[in-house]
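Rotation project, supervised by the postdoc (A.L.). Task for the rotation student: set up a whole-complex structure prediction and record inputs and outputs verbatim in this book. Inputs entered:
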Amino acid sequence: MVELEIPAEPEFVSLVRLFVSSLATTRREIADDRIDDLKLAVSEACTNAIDAHSDSDTDDRVVVTWAEGDDRLEVAVNDSGPGFDLATLPQHPPVTDPERLNFERGLGIPLIRSLVDEVDFKTSGSGTTVTLVMYCGPAEG
Amino acid sequence: MVELEIPAEPEFVSLVRLFVSSLATTRREIADDRIDDLKLAVSEACTNAIDAHSDSDTDDRVVVTWAEGDDRLEVAVNDSGPGFDLATLPQHPPVTDPERLNFERGLGIPLIRSLVDEVDFKTSGSGTTVTLVMYCGPAEG
Amino acid sequence: MLAVKGEVDVYTAPRLRERLVELVTEGKRKIVVDLEGVDFLDSTGLGVLVGGLKRLRSNDGEMTLVSTQSRILKVFEITGLTKVFSIHDSVEAATAG
Amino acid sequence: MLAVKGEVDVYTAPRLRERLVELVTEGKRKIVVDLEGVDFLDSTGLGVLVGGLKRLRSNDGEMTLVSTQSRILKVFEITGLTKVFSIHDSVEAATAG
Ligand SMILES: Nc1ncnc2c1ncn2[C@@H]1O[C@H](COP(=O)(O)OP(=O)(O)O)[C@@H](O)[C@H]1O
Ligand SMILES: Nc1ncnc2c1ncn2[C@@H]1O[C@H](COP(=O)(O)OP(=O)(O)O)[C@@H](O)[C@H]1O
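Outputs recorded:
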């Protein structure tokens, strides 16, 4: 397990992406476009974790954890924000509807869902952990 | 403060280097060759931290912490190894002595000392923290 | 014409938003955003582009995008935004369109 | 001739050590180690080179290095190993020497 802990600030998301792509490249047999998918999914989860801290002025932290199974990579993104209710997220109008242009947000979670093989949300009033799973080949070396 | 926690295994030292060079490049005004110096010094400290765990078969961890001051970067490398006594480290014969070739080791700490602006060792029977300081220009942005 | 380079994410997207707002304020009505130099684009970046398109359309303008990179196009496809934007292979094609 | 590429650190140095031992075992007595493709070299890597040199000299052989990169040369300078190794600008110079 490898852990990266960053301040809940936008400028650190690029470091998280580097962390994920470096580990994915060196440790597992995984195609470049799958690494891009994982990188984007983790980046989206981190952006949400950082957003969740944007109201508080305390020294908030986001923790990204990398773990490996025989056939999978698991990246968990944890924050201490207020949590949210997945069931009540607003639905977008279909993309063909001109109204669609009123939605500049809400693209993150749908992206995450389609980029990785499994997603799990654990969320409560004291924080959220999003776990992203990507299936992959065996360990290198 | 940013923190990276890795298993005490040689294969993760390259991730630590990436962590340091990425942070140094994006966050501070610092020349490329100084970044190389810091990267090498942190890498040496990590190698020692990992070596310190090589006898134990427990799930040992090395923690690298990045902190910034107005005029400096501080990178601390912490391990839970057995510690050591700086004062009793073997001295090398001068490089011109043919005997010098018998020393394939012991180059790490001298390198660290000459690469960074300040070094501090805190070591005890329950672990070691090496703190490397490099002076640099003000924060970016 | 606006050529975007590097990573467009939650940290850098605000700068892109500012540039787009500036262009519209200057009176530009046809904007070509060249994404060929973009290494990474996330939902925040998409949101900024959607916002720019909306602003332009409400001023009778139009925005077209240039991208041939599969990893960038993929993000538009997944989110269904290929149906909202017209995306071209080259700046020439985008300008002609 | 042994061309080394990439990063030589605590993880990868054992492979370099093996290669050097192999070459000596095969009977090679003059080895040129080309470090031009090396991005990173730490004290473990230096130690392996020192070990190789020692092994060669005790067999009446010699090892010469090729490097022009300042960040690599710097590591030899700091550790005083420029006095132990002969380091050349090119493989030709190293072979001639
Ligand atoms: N880690 C989190 N903590 C709190 N709320 C979250 C978290 N992740 C997502 N959310 C909520 O879910 C909503 C939808 O997220 P997302 O689909 O990524 O779109 P966006 O972040 O652009 O709004 C967010 O606006 C936020 O209210
Ligand atoms: N973090 C540490 N924990 C325990 N011992 C250490 C640590 N760092 C250095 N040492 C001791 O100091 C010695 C000298 O270290 P160094 O100069 O880096 O050379 P080398 O690691 O090649 O022996 C090591 O061999 C080890 O005994």
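Student's summary: The longest helix of chain A spans residues 32-52.
Supervisor addendum: The beta strands of chain A are 2-7, 61-69, 72-79, 118-124, 127-135.
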